[in-house]
Amino acid sequence: MSRIAYVNGLYQPVSEARVSIEDRGYQFGDGVYEVCEVLDGDIIDLTRHLDRLERSLAALEIPMPMSRGALTAVFREIGRRNGLTNGSLYLQVTRGVAPRDHYFPARPVRPAIVVVAKRSDQARIAAQAEAGIAAITQPDNRWERVDIKTIGLLPNVLAKEAARRAGAREAFLVDRDGFITEGGSSNVWIVHGHTLITRPASPGILKGITRAGVVDAATALGLAVEERAFTVADALGADEVFVTSATNTVMPVVRLDGNTIGNGLPGPQTRLLRGEFHHHSERTPIY
Ligand code: PDD
After folding, report:
1. To pair with 53 at 20 to 30 A between CA atoms, which of 32, 90, 155, 239?
2. pTM for this structure?
Protein backbone atom coordinates (compact mmCIF):
# COMPACT_ATOMS: atom_id res chain seq x y z
CA MET A 1 0.00 0.00 0.00
CA SER A 2 1.58 3.33 -1.00
CA ARG A 3 1.68 5.97 1.71
CA ILE A 4 -0.85 8.77 1.24
CA ALA A 5 -0.40 12.33 2.46
CA TYR A 6 -2.88 15.17 2.74
CA VAL A 7 -1.35 18.31 1.22
CA ASN A 8 -3.34 21.52 0.93
CA GLY A 9 -6.63 19.86 0.07
CA LEU A 10 -5.35 16.86 -1.89
CA TYR A 11 -4.81 13.24 -0.89
CA GLN A 12 -1.69 12.17 -2.76
CA PRO A 13 0.93 9.40 -2.69
CA VAL A 14 3.82 10.68 -0.53
CA SER A 15 6.17 10.19 -3.49
CA GLU A 16 4.12 12.66 -5.55
CA ALA A 17 3.18 15.14 -2.82
CA ARG A 18 4.79 18.57 -3.23
CA VAL A 19 5.00 21.82 -1.32
CA SER A 20 6.22 25.15 -2.68
CA ILE A 21 9.83 26.27 -2.26
CA GLU A 22 8.30 29.55 -1.10
CA ASP A 23 6.44 27.91 1.76
CA ARG A 24 7.34 29.98 4.83
CA GLY A 25 7.79 26.78 6.80
CA TYR A 26 10.57 25.75 4.43
CA GLN A 27 12.20 29.19 4.38
CA PHE A 28 11.75 30.44 7.95
CA GLY A 29 10.47 27.52 10.03
CA ASP A 30 7.35 29.70 10.23
CA GLY A 31 4.84 27.08 11.27
CA VAL A 32 3.67 24.66 13.93
CA TYR A 33 2.99 20.96 14.20
CA GLU A 34 1.32 18.24 16.24
CA VAL A 35 2.03 14.52 16.59
CA CYS A 36 -0.86 12.35 17.79
CA GLU A 37 -0.46 8.77 18.88
CA VAL A 38 -2.62 6.16 17.14
CA LEU A 39 -3.24 3.01 19.14
CA ASP A 40 -5.36 0.07 18.00
CA GLY A 41 -6.98 2.29 15.38
CA ASP A 42 -7.83 5.12 17.78
CA ILE A 43 -6.37 8.64 17.85
CA ILE A 44 -5.26 9.31 21.43
CA ASP A 45 -6.18 12.57 23.19
CA LEU A 46 -7.19 14.39 20.01
CA THR A 47 -9.07 17.15 21.86
CA ARG A 48 -5.95 18.16 23.78
CA HIS A 49 -3.82 18.08 20.63
CA LEU A 50 -6.29 20.34 18.81
CA ASP A 51 -6.39 22.69 21.82
CA ARG A 52 -2.58 22.96 21.76
CA LEU A 53 -2.58 23.42 17.99
CA GLU A 54 -4.96 26.35 18.38
CA ARG A 55 -2.75 27.86 21.09
CA SER A 56 0.42 27.48 18.98
CA LEU A 57 -1.25 28.99 15.91
CA ALA A 58 -2.70 31.88 17.92
CA ALA A 59 0.73 32.66 19.38
CA LEU A 60 2.09 33.06 15.84
CA GLU A 61 -1.04 34.78 14.48
CA ILE A 62 -1.63 32.02 11.95
CA PRO A 63 -5.33 31.26 11.42
CA MET A 64 -6.66 27.71 11.86
CA PRO A 65 -6.49 26.22 8.35
CA MET A 66 -9.90 24.57 8.79
CA SER A 67 -12.36 23.81 11.56
CA ARG A 68 -11.57 21.27 14.27
CA GLY A 69 -14.24 19.00 12.80
CA ALA A 70 -12.71 19.18 9.32
CA LEU A 71 -9.22 18.55 10.71
CA THR A 72 -10.51 15.52 12.58
CA ALA A 73 -12.06 14.24 9.33
CA VAL A 74 -8.70 14.66 7.53
CA PHE A 75 -6.87 12.84 10.34
CA ARG A 76 -9.31 9.94 10.16
CA GLU A 77 -9.18 9.83 6.36
CA ILE A 78 -5.37 9.79 6.35
CA GLY A 79 -5.48 7.06 8.97
CA ARG A 80 -7.89 5.02 6.84
CA ARG A 81 -6.09 5.56 3.54
CA ASN A 82 -2.84 4.42 5.13
CA GLY A 83 -4.38 1.44 6.93
CA LEU A 84 -2.97 2.89 10.15
CA THR A 85 -3.53 0.86 13.32
CA ASN A 86 -0.54 1.73 15.50
CA GLY A 87 1.74 4.71 14.98
CA SER A 88 1.22 8.43 14.73
CA LEU A 89 -0.37 11.20 12.72
CA TYR A 90 1.79 14.21 11.93
CA LEU A 91 0.15 17.55 11.17
CA GLN A 92 2.05 20.63 10.05
CA VAL A 93 0.57 24.06 9.46
CA THR A 94 2.71 26.89 8.12
CA ARG A 95 1.90 30.54 7.51
CA GLY A 96 1.61 29.79 3.80
CA VAL A 97 3.35 30.55 0.53
CA ALA A 98 4.73 34.01 -0.29
CA PRO A 99 7.89 35.51 -1.86
CA ARG A 100 10.62 35.42 0.80
CA ASP A 101 10.35 38.43 3.12
CA HIS A 102 10.69 38.34 6.90
CA TYR A 103 7.56 40.43 7.44
CA PHE A 104 4.27 38.57 7.46
CA PRO A 105 2.81 38.56 3.91
CA ALA A 106 1.23 41.96 3.21
CA ARG A 107 -1.90 40.33 1.86
CA PRO A 108 -3.16 37.38 3.88
CA VAL A 109 -2.21 34.00 2.41
CA ARG A 110 -3.85 30.69 3.19
CA PRO A 111 -2.00 28.58 5.75
CA ALA A 112 -0.39 25.50 4.20
CA ILE A 113 -1.27 22.16 5.73
CA VAL A 114 0.25 18.69 5.53
CA VAL A 115 -0.91 15.52 7.30
CA VAL A 116 0.99 12.24 7.11
CA ALA A 117 0.69 8.90 8.87
CA LYS A 118 3.56 6.90 10.31
CA ARG A 119 3.44 3.30 11.45
CA SER A 120 5.32 2.36 14.58
CA ASP A 121 7.23 -0.80 15.34
CA GLN A 122 5.32 -1.90 18.42
CA ALA A 123 7.70 -4.77 19.18
CA ARG A 124 10.72 -2.45 19.11
CA ILE A 125 9.06 0.11 21.39
CA ALA A 126 7.95 -2.64 23.79
CA ALA A 127 11.52 -4.00 23.90
CA GLN A 128 12.88 -0.52 24.66
CA ALA A 129 10.30 -0.03 27.41
CA GLU A 130 11.21 -3.40 28.88
CA ALA A 131 14.94 -2.60 29.03
CA GLY A 132 14.73 1.18 29.53
CA ILE A 133 16.64 3.68 27.42
CA ALA A 134 19.81 5.72 27.94
CA ALA A 135 19.93 9.53 27.87
CA ILE A 136 22.68 12.13 27.87
CA THR A 137 22.61 15.77 28.95
CA GLN A 138 22.98 18.63 26.49
CA PRO A 139 22.80 22.40 26.96
CA ASP A 140 19.35 23.85 26.33
CA ASN A 141 20.18 26.58 23.84
CA ARG A 142 16.69 27.06 22.40
CA TRP A 143 14.65 30.27 22.28
CA GLU A 144 12.38 31.24 25.17
CA ARG A 145 9.04 30.25 23.62
CA VAL A 146 9.39 26.50 23.29
CA ASP A 147 5.85 26.21 24.68
CA ILE A 148 4.82 27.00 21.08
CA LYS A 149 5.15 23.75 19.13
CA THR A 150 6.99 25.24 16.16
CA ILE A 151 8.62 23.24 13.40
CA GLY A 152 11.92 25.06 14.14
CA LEU A 153 13.60 22.12 15.87
CA LEU A 154 17.28 22.50 14.97
CA PRO A 155 18.57 22.56 18.59
CA ASN A 156 16.47 19.47 19.32
CA VAL A 157 17.80 17.74 16.19
CA LEU A 158 21.43 18.47 17.15
CA ALA A 159 20.91 17.39 20.77
CA LYS A 160 19.22 14.15 19.74
CA GLU A 161 21.88 13.37 17.17
CA ALA A 162 24.54 13.89 19.88
CA ALA A 163 22.57 11.41 22.01
CA ARG A 164 22.43 8.87 19.20
CA ARG A 165 26.19 9.17 18.64
CA ALA A 166 26.73 8.58 22.36
CA GLY A 167 24.67 5.38 22.17
CA ALA A 168 21.65 7.01 23.87
CA ARG A 169 18.11 7.65 22.63
CA GLU A 170 17.22 10.92 24.31
CA ALA A 171 18.98 14.16 25.20
CA PHE A 172 17.98 15.87 28.47
CA LEU A 173 18.23 19.61 27.87
CA VAL A 174 19.79 21.51 30.77
CA ASP A 175 19.33 25.23 31.41
CA ARG A 176 22.06 27.66 32.55
CA ASP A 177 21.28 26.99 36.21
CA GLY A 178 21.75 23.23 35.89
CA PHE A 179 18.05 22.35 35.82
CA ILE A 180 16.67 19.87 33.31
CA THR A 181 14.04 21.53 31.15
CA GLU A 182 12.81 18.64 29.00
CA GLY A 183 13.98 16.05 26.50
CA GLY A 184 14.85 16.69 22.87
CA SER A 185 11.42 15.31 21.97
CA SER A 186 9.85 14.45 25.33
CA ASN A 187 9.05 15.71 28.82
CA VAL A 188 11.25 14.42 31.66
CA TRP A 189 10.06 13.04 35.00
CA ILE A 190 11.84 11.79 38.10
CA VAL A 191 10.31 9.59 40.77
CA HIS A 192 10.95 9.46 44.52
CA GLY A 193 8.97 6.69 46.14
CA HIS A 194 5.35 7.41 45.24
CA THR A 195 5.96 11.00 44.14
CA LEU A 196 6.39 12.06 40.53
CA ILE A 197 8.31 15.26 39.84
CA THR A 198 8.25 17.17 36.57
CA ARG A 199 9.15 20.71 35.59
CA PRO A 200 6.25 23.18 35.77
CA ALA A 201 4.67 24.03 32.44
CA SER A 202 6.08 27.44 31.57
CA PRO A 203 7.34 28.99 28.35
CA GLY A 204 10.56 27.00 29.00
CA ILE A 205 9.04 23.62 28.09
CA LEU A 206 6.51 22.21 25.69
CA LYS A 207 3.43 21.30 27.70
CA GLY A 208 3.17 17.69 26.57
CA ILE A 209 -0.19 16.06 25.96
CA THR A 210 1.25 12.81 27.31
CA ARG A 211 2.46 14.79 30.35
CA ALA A 212 -1.15 15.84 31.01
CA GLY A 213 -2.29 12.24 30.58
CA VAL A 214 0.29 11.04 33.09
CA VAL A 215 -0.96 13.61 35.61
CA ASP A 216 -4.47 12.18 35.12
CA ALA A 217 -3.27 8.58 35.46
CA ALA A 218 -1.10 9.39 38.50
CA THR A 219 -3.99 11.16 40.23
CA ALA A 220 -6.28 8.18 39.60
CA LEU A 221 -3.59 5.82 40.93
CA GLY A 222 -3.05 7.87 44.09
CA LEU A 223 0.48 8.96 43.18
CA ALA A 224 1.55 12.48 44.12
CA VAL A 225 2.63 14.85 41.34
CA GLU A 226 4.96 17.73 42.19
CA GLU A 227 5.61 20.32 39.51
CA ARG A 228 9.03 21.76 40.28
CA ALA A 229 12.36 22.18 38.57
CA PHE A 230 15.02 19.53 39.24
CA THR A 231 18.72 19.25 38.50
CA VAL A 232 20.83 16.63 36.79
CA ALA A 233 22.03 15.55 40.26
CA ASP A 234 18.38 15.13 41.34
CA ALA A 235 17.78 12.90 38.33
CA LEU A 236 20.88 10.83 39.05
CA GLY A 237 19.77 10.37 42.65
CA ALA A 238 16.13 9.55 41.81
CA ASP A 239 14.54 6.14 42.25
CA GLU A 240 13.24 6.23 38.71
CA VAL A 241 13.40 8.50 35.67
CA PHE A 242 11.12 8.41 32.64
CA VAL A 243 10.20 10.50 29.63
CA THR A 244 6.82 11.07 28.02
CA SER A 245 5.81 11.77 24.42
CA ALA A 246 3.03 10.90 22.02
CA THR A 247 5.31 8.52 20.15
CA ASN A 248 6.59 6.51 23.14
CA THR A 249 4.01 7.34 25.88
CA VAL A 250 5.86 6.52 29.14
CA MET A 251 9.44 5.40 28.48
CA PRO A 252 11.81 4.46 31.33
CA VAL A 253 15.29 5.99 31.36
CA VAL A 254 17.85 3.79 33.12
CA ARG A 255 21.15 5.51 32.27
CA LEU A 256 22.07 9.19 32.24
CA ASP A 257 25.47 10.30 30.95
CA GLY A 258 26.69 6.74 31.50
CA ASN A 259 25.50 6.58 35.13
CA THR A 260 23.00 3.97 36.22
CA ILE A 261 19.70 5.25 37.62
CA GLY A 262 18.24 3.25 40.50
CA ASN A 263 19.05 -0.40 39.97
CA GLY A 264 19.38 0.06 36.20
CA LEU A 265 15.96 -1.40 35.45
CA PRO A 266 12.62 0.29 34.74
CA GLY A 267 11.06 1.08 38.11
CA PRO A 268 7.65 0.08 39.48
CA GLN A 269 5.91 3.46 39.16
CA THR A 270 7.15 3.91 35.60
CA ARG A 271 5.91 0.46 34.65
CA LEU A 272 2.58 1.07 36.36
CA LEU A 273 2.08 4.38 34.56
CA ARG A 274 3.06 2.90 31.21
CA GLY A 275 0.52 0.12 31.69
CA GLU A 276 -2.25 2.40 32.97
CA PHE A 277 -1.74 5.44 30.77
CA HIS A 278 -4.20 4.54 28.00
CA HIS A 279 -6.97 3.75 30.45
CA HIS A 280 -7.17 7.48 31.09
CA SER A 281 -6.89 8.82 27.55
CA GLU A 282 -9.54 10.03 25.12
CA ARG A 283 -9.95 7.84 22.02
CA THR A 284 -11.22 8.94 18.62
CA PRO A 285 -11.77 5.93 16.33
CA ILE A 286 -10.28 6.14 12.83
CA TYR A 287 -12.45 3.36 11.44
N1 PDD B 1 7.54 15.59 20.40
N2 PDD B 1 8.89 18.26 24.49
C3 PDD B 1 9.33 18.29 23.22
C4 PDD B 1 10.48 19.19 22.88
C5 PDD B 1 8.71 17.48 22.24
O6 PDD B 1 9.15 17.53 20.98
C7 PDD B 1 7.65 16.62 22.62
C8 PDD B 1 6.95 15.74 21.64
C9 PDD B 1 7.24 16.62 23.96
C10 PDD B 1 6.11 15.75 24.44
O11 PDD B 1 4.87 16.23 24.00
P12 PDD B 1 3.64 15.25 23.71
O13 PDD B 1 3.43 14.45 24.94
O14 PDD B 1 2.52 16.17 23.42
O15 PDD B 1 4.02 14.37 22.56
C16 PDD B 1 7.87 17.46 24.86
C17 PDD B 1 6.87 14.90 19.32
C18 PDD B 1 6.39 13.54 19.68
C19 PDD B 1 7.77 14.94 18.11
O20 PDD B 1 8.35 16.00 17.87
O21 PDD B 1 7.87 13.94 17.39
Report:
1. 155
2. 0.97
The set of protein residues with a Cβ atom below 6 angstroms from ligand 1 is 35, 156, 182, 185-187, 206, 208-211, 244-247
Active site residue 149: yes
139 in a structural domain: yes
**Residue length, the chain?**
287
170 and 33 in a common domain: no
Distance from residue 210's CA to the centre of ligand 1 (Å):
8
Mean per-residue pLDDT pooled into runs of 10, the chain (287 residues): 93 97 98 98 98 98 98 98 98 98 96 98 96 98 97 98 98 97 98 98 95 97 98 98 98 98 97 96 98
Q: Which atom of ligand 1 is nearest to the CA of 37?
A: 15
Same domain, 156 and 272: yes
Mark whether 113 and 208 lie in a shared domain.
Answer: no
Identify the domain containing residue 154 by its residue range: 125-281
